[in-house]
Write a structure and sequence with these properties.
Strand content: under 5%
Shape: elongated
Distance between the termini: 93 Å
Number of helices: 1
Radius of gyration: 30 Å
Number of strands: 0
Helix content: 40-55%
Low-confidence stretches: none
Mean pLDDT: 82
Length: 76
Amino acid sequence: MGELDPRPVAQATAEQTFGDFMKWTKWTVYGSLAFFLAVTSCNFGVETGEAKTGSQYDGSVYAPSNLNGCKNFKCP
């Protein structure tokens, strides 16, 4: 028959695939770190300081005004 040994071909293919996987994984980690650093440098989008605008917490909107005398979550 001849020499039809699939082991060297499989070994070369496995090494190439593993190298490509490691390259992809490294770039994914680098990209994730860059994104995280960019977002943290912007304070995660939270506005602070004198010129802050937009979505700010307003406690009166979330005040429980419909309890009608209920205390400690027990209503008569």
